[in-house]
Amino acid sequence: MEPIIAQIYSDVLRGQHKDVTIHVKLALHKGLAPILIMNDGMISAMHEVGSLFEAGEYYVPEMLVAARAMQSGMSVLKPYLAGKDVHPAGKVAIGTVQGDYHDIGKNLVKMMLEGSGFEVIDLGVDVDPATFISAVLKDQVDILAMSALITTTMENMQPVIAALEKSGYHQRVKVLVGGAPLTEEFAMQIGADGYAPDASRAVTMAKFLLTK
Ligand code: B1M
C-alpha cells in the first residue's frame, strides 16, 4: 500500500479529522486516483472500525470520530469525484430508511450519482415511508433510492415499496436499494428493481434502471 494511503487509513481509524484532510490533499497532489484514496484509504478503514466495534475494542464514540474523519476526507475528495456529464441523467430521491442514522454510504452514493450527472434530492436519515412517497409525488423522481446499514432497519424498506405500489406510482418510479447487510436476493424479495453493493455500482444500476 502507498504510504500516504496507509496514513489516511490510520487517520480515519484513529478519528483524526484534521490530519485526514491534509493527507487526502497530499495524496491528490501526488496524483493518486480519488477512487483509490476513497476505497483503500477511507472505506477500508471504516470496515476495520466495524470489526473493532464487534470485537469490543471500539465503542460508539470511536465510531463517531472515525465517521467524522471519513466525512472530512470525503469533503476534500468530492470535487474530484464529480464527473464531466452536463446533461441531467435522471432524478433520484435518496434516503436512509426509518430507524437508521448511518449516512456515510448513502452520502457516497449521492456523491457518485451527482458526479455522473444525476440530480439528487437527499431526504437524509431516518426517513419514514410517507416522506419517501411524498418525494416521489412532489419531485417527480425517476428513481427512489434507499440505504440501510442495520439488519433490523433493512426490513423498513419493504413498507416503502408497498406504499409505492399502493399509490400506483411503482410503474413510473424504479426502486434502487443498497447497504452493507443487503443482498441481491433480499432486494428481489422485497420487490426492489435494482440492488448495488457499492457506490460506483449504484451509478451503473441507476443508469440501467432508466433504460428499463
Ligand atoms: Co453503526 N453499526 N451503529 N454507527 N456502524 C454498523 C452498521 C455495524 C455493522 C457495526 C458492527 O457491529 N460491526 C452495526 C450493525 C449490526 C447489525 O446490522 N446488526 C452497527 C450498530 C450496531 C450501530 C448502533 C446500534 C450502535 C449502538 O448504538 N449501540 C447504532 C445505531 C444507530 C442507528 O442508526 N439507529 C450505530 C451508530 C453508529 C454511529 C452513529 C456511531 C456511526 C454512523 C455515523 C454516520 O453514518 N454518520 C456508526 C458507524 C460509523 C458504523 C460502521 C463502523 C461504519 C459504517 C460506514 O460508514 N461504513 C459500521 C460497521 C461497518 O460498516 N463495517 C456500523 C463506510 C461506508 C462507506 O460503507 O455504509 O456500508 P457503507 O456503504 C457502502 C455500501 O454499503 C453501499 O455503498 C457504500 C459505499 O460503497 N451502499 C449502497 C450503502 N447504501 C447504499 C445504497 C445504494 C447502493 C449502495 O443504493 C440506494
The whole-number mean of residue pLDDT values reads 92
The number of helical elements comes to: 9
- Ions and ligands: CO-5-methoxybenzimidazolylcobamide
Largest sheet: 5 strands, parallel
In a nutshell, what does this entry contain?
The chain is globular and about 55 Å long.
Keywords:
212 residues, 5-stranded parallel sheet, 9 helices, 5 strands, binds CO-5-methoxybenzimidazolylcobamide
Walk me through what this model shows:
The chain has 212 residues and is of the alpha/beta class. Helices cover 56% and strands 13% of the residues. It has a five-stranded parallel β-sheet with strand order 2-1-3-4-5, sandwiched between helices. Helix 5 crosses helix 9 (199-211). The mean pLDDT is 92. Residues 43, 46-47, 49-50, 53-54, 60, 63-64, 67, 99-106, 108-109, 145-147, 149-151, 176-181, 196, 198-199, 202 line the site of CO-5-methoxybenzimidazolylcobamide (B1M).
Topology:
Layout lengths: L2 H11 L3 H13 L4 H21 L5 H22 L9 E7 L6 H12 L3 E9 L1 H11 L3 E5 L10 H10 L6 E5 L5 H6 L4 E2 L3 H13 L1
Parallel strand pairs: 1-2, 1-3, 3-4, 4-5
Helix pairs in contact: 1-2, 1-3, 2-4, 3-4, 4-5, 5-9, 6-7
The protein binds CO-5-methoxybenzimidazolylcobamide.
